[in-house]
Structure formats: C-alpha cells, structure tokens
Amino acid sequence: MDDRLTQTSKFLSYVLRHNPDALNLELEPGGWADVETLIGHARADGRTLSRSRLRHVLDAGEKRRFTLSEDATKIRANYGHSIDVNLDLTPMSPDGPLHHGTAEQALSSIRKEGLRPQSRQYVHLSPTWDEATSVGARHGIPVVLPIDAPALHEAGHTLYRSTDTVWLTRHVPPSFLTFPDVESEGQEDD
Fold it and tell me: Which stretch of DSSP H or E encloses residue 163?
C-alpha cells in the first residue's frame, strides 16, 4: 500500500474504530457509516477522500479492515473498535486452535489475567501462526500463544469470526493458552 493509501487507511481506522465525532459522523447499527456523509465530512475537514480512494484502500488492504455494504452506500471497520459498537456478528465455534500474537514483555500479565481487550472491545485472535507472528511483531519481540479455541467455546466464551484473518472474543483465560516454556530474563509487566 502506498503512503497516501496508508494515510487514508489510518484516517478511516481512527474515525470508524475510535472517534467518529472527529468528523461529526454518526455510526449506524452495526458500525456502519454512510459513504457520502463520510466523504463530505472528510472533505470539509480538508482531507482528500473519494469513492475511488475508498475502493483502493479496501482492495489494497491485506487484513480486510473495512467492508462496504452490498449496495456500496455504507462502510464500516470490521474490528479494532475502542468505542462501543455492535457489529452484529454471529457467534461461531472454531474448528481448531487460534493464535494470539503479542510481545514478549506482555507475557507476565497474560499469564496472570489471560488475554483482555485492553482499550479495544475485543481480543483479536488469528487463525494461523504466521498471522499472529506478524501482529506480535508490531509490539516488540513477537510471541505467539496458541489457544484451545474449541475448548474456549465449549466453556461458554463467545467467539466471532470478523474476517478470514481475525476472530474476536471478550476474554481468554490463561487456562486456554499455551505459553512458551521460558520467558526472557528482565521482562517487565504490562
């Protein structure tokens, strides 16, 4: 993704995930924003945004951060919200393990509390080791924690598949995580 598209993606993430008020934008049920209203408010704020630019962001994004409605009149962020949004996702039971990518320095607190969403609505889980490694690398030295997702589901924890590469849940207790045998020396708690 080129720099302009990356900037647009970050802007959309900020507005649709964290602060729609920054553009005086009202999200509809499901986290949807009207595309024409978004474009108009963004332009009034001095930003270059068009349907074409939105389409390029959606097509270039590997992680499917955003979705257009079937009639292309609405857009939403698929995950990562820090604001209260009901995405109207259907609970699902994963067929196998899921993975969480984190940084080495977070292991101590995860061992005690499990995975919590921190400032987000949900904990993000990946279906593959490689995807989880990529996520963990954004935060430091990556560590991948396998999760017994079928057992987590059976224990009553709700899981949602947001995209092909992202599953969501509210909490993963430590008992459903597989930790590395040895933590690095000198780690700090989160």
Answer: strand 159-163
Q: Which two tokens stand for residue 66?
A: 């955003």
CATH number for the region 98-176 comes to 3.20.170.30
3-state secondary structure of 33: strand
Residue whose structure tokens are 């700090």? 188
Tens of pLDDT, residue by residue over 12-32, are 999 999 999 999 999 999 999
Return the CATH fold of 3-77: Arc Repressor Mutant, subunit A (1.10.10)
